[in-house]
Write a structure and sequence with these properties.
Order of helices and strands: HHHH
Structural class: mainly alpha
Distance between the termini: 51 Å
Number of domains: 1
Largest sheet: none
Helix content: over 70%
Shape: elongated
Number of helices: 4
Radius of gyration: 15 Å
Number of strands: 0
């Protein structure tokens, strides 16, 4: 079985960095419900189910952690793009459209 400790650490740190970035910019946490976060969560759920069902999970858990880390970075990008706190932003292109519309 692969060692997922580095990916777990990066996942944990990136999540907390995204939370801190949200708080510093808007004084509240983001509620974007982005597609990348949904995909990351679905993959993490599938990977954990497979791990408990089969007892072994090399590829799926690694892919799920990478997808979740990328979702955290997209969340930080959305936070950087948006001028004001906005819920339910599906992806960073939607954040760009919202920013252009606010001008």
């Amino acid at each position: 079985m692969l060692d997922f400790a580095p990916l777990l650490l990066i996942w944990f740190v990136s999540d907390h960095l995204a939370l801190l970035f949200d708080w510093l910019k808007f004084r509240r946490f983001a509620a974007y419900h982005a597609w990348s976060a949904k995909l990351g969560g679905l993959l993490l759920m599938s990977a954990l189910f497979w791990l408990f069902a089969v007892g072994r999970n090399d590829f799926l858990l690694g892919a799920a952690l990478i997808a979740a880390i990328l979702a955290h970075f997209e969340r930080m990008i959305i936070t950087a793009i948006l001028p004001v706190w906005t819920p339910d932003v599906a992806h960073f292109r939607a954040a760009l459209r919202l920013r252009r519309a606010a001008r």
